[in-house]
Write a structure and sequence with these properties.
alpha+beta, 2 domains, 3-stranded antiparallel sheet, 3 helices, 36% helix, elongated
């Protein structure tokens, strides 16, 4: 593991993380091996009361023939997941269609959808 911490809260953790990665890579290279990242961690703001920017890299040094070197690389998991559900209306009347068309026109006017998308959705609404 390699860890870097800033002396003040006025610097970012990007440079610290880059330095940690560089040191880990150099260490493994001296051993004649390749670096495989296991985990990374960065301190979260606010950077006050000794909680200064910090970056930590956990790694393994592996030989070129090691099967562990071929495992998938780390991927950041999302901080938030947004799920969009559509509710299909049963027995929608003309006032519902009018409200849907009005909302659709607002989306077009605000630039959220383009004219082709507007026309496609408009035809779907009018077909019901």
């Amino acid at each position: 593991m390699v860890s870097r911490q800033a002396a003040t809260g006025f610097s970012g953790s990007g440079t610290l993380k880059a330095e940690a990665f560089q040191e880990a890579t150099q260490y493994c290279t001296k051993e004649g091996k390749f670096m495989q990242v296991v985990n990374t961690h960065e301190a979260s703001p606010p950077y006050i009361f000794g909680n200064f920017p910090k970056a930590e890299v956990q790694f393994m040094c592996l030989s070129a023939s090691d099967a562990e070197l071929q495992r998938p690389k780390l991927k950041k998991t999302p901080d938030q997941t947004i799920e969009v559900k559509q509710v299909e209306k049963v027995g929608a009347d003309s006032s519902d269609s009018y409200a849907q068309l009005k909302k659709l026109k607002e989306l077009l006017d605000s630039g959220i959808i383009n004219q082709d998308e507007f026309n496609t959705e408009k035809h779907k609404i009018l077909a019901n």
